[in-house]
Amino acid sequence: MVVLHTDLDNTIIYSYKHDIGPAKRNVELYQGREVSFITERTYGLLQQVRKEMLVVPTSTRSIEQYRRIDLGVGPFPYALVCNGGILLADGKRDEAWYQASLRLIGQSESELQKALCLLEEDSRRKFELRFIERLFVFTKCGEPQRVVEDLRAALNTELVDVFHNGEKVYVVPRALNKGKAVRRFREYIHADFVVAAGDSEFDISMLEEADVGLAPHGFAEVFAVDFTVREMDGRKVFAESLLQECLGIKGER
After folding, report:
1. 142: which DSSP letter?
2. Whether the model pTM is above 0.85
3. CB-based contacts of 139: which residues, under 8 Å, 6+ apart?
4. Angle of CA points 13, 210, 64, to nearest 5°
5. How far apart are CA 42 and CA 40, in angstroms?
6. 150 with 119: CB under 8 angstroms?
7. How far apart are CA 54 and CA 49, in angstroms?
8. Where are the beta strands (DSSP E) in the chain?
9. Would the CA dihedral through 180, 182, 184, 186 be positive or negative?
10. b or e along 111-124 (b: 16 or more beta carbons within 10 Å of the residue's beta carbon)?
11. Judging by DSSP bridges, how do beta strands 130-132 and 136-140 pair with one another?
12. Closest Cα partner for 127 from 153, 166, 159?
């Protein structure tokens, strides 16, 4: 069995803020607004790839956020959300997987609680403080880089990682990453070969863990990764390039 673990945001789907051309379709509604899109070519390629590989969306999104997405190609048998901490099988959460995730991050619990206390009092915080499924901490802040630096100085970074994506600030147990989720799922499904695609810091461990990692043009340099990834053509929409590459990978095997 060949499995494709793919990130969603900026990998398969794109927010309304991104120009992906006029040939696109809406895949996510939020509070009545169209917020995320895929290209028509992505839609067609995804249907082809699904015939060749088990596609497993692998996202940092919460269950609620994931369920807002409808790519129009039918439900996926499996999805990994909350940075791999929760497995959805036929849309239902696998309780055994979740409990195993909580055990994995047990040593980080005190640091997560400390992060919650620090962010609760931080005047730069501009959004509610969320402890996502008791797995990781999320909020939004002004001066996010300085917030991250202050948190890293105060927390045990051997147990938790702290970073930001724009104004979004995350405190995530080091044991909770997409790479570990890919490894766990490989054993869970007895996969023969694993492909992974992603575009952000969250995806580095997943790309490294896979047999083939697919990334946007310039990814290795931006994130200074020390392993091999296949970078896609920077002149094309990443989603289209990676799905086309997947069809080629299947042919290689």
Report:
1. S
2. yes
3. 119, 125, 127, 128, 129, 130, 168, 169
4. 40
5. 5
6. no
7. 8
8. 2-6, 14-15, 24-30, 33-39, 54-57, 78-81, 86-89, 92-93, 130-132, 136-140, 160-165, 168-173, 193-197, 212-215, 230-231
9. negative
10. bbebbeebbeebeb
11. antiparallel
12. 166
Q: What is the dihedral of CA 209, 213, 218, 221, to 10 degrees?
A: 30
pLDDT of the chain, 253 residues: tens digit per residue: 999 999 999 999 999 999 999 999 999 999 999 999 999 999 999 999 999 999 999 999 999 999 999 999 999 999 999 999 999 999 999 999 999 999 999 999 999 999 999 999 999 999 999 999 999 999 999 999 999 999 999 999 999 999 898 899 999 999 999 999 999 999 999 999 999 999 998 999 999 999 999 999 999 999 999 999 999 998 889 999 999 999 998 656 6
- Written as six digits, the tokens of 29 are 């509604």
Alpha helix segments (H runs only) across 134-237:
144-154, 178-189, 204-209, 219-223
**Do 141 and 122 form a contact (C-beta atoms < 8 A)?**
yes
**Within 13 Å, how many C-alpha atoms sit on residue 6's CB side?**
27
Q: From CA 186, how far away is CA 198, in angstroms rounded?
A: 18
How far is Cα 12 from Cα 116, in angstroms, rounded to an integer? 31
Q: What distance separates the 2 farthest-apart alpha carbons in the chain?
A: 54
* Tokens linked to 214: 């697919």
**Is residue 182 helix, strand or coil?**
helix
Amino acid at 17: K
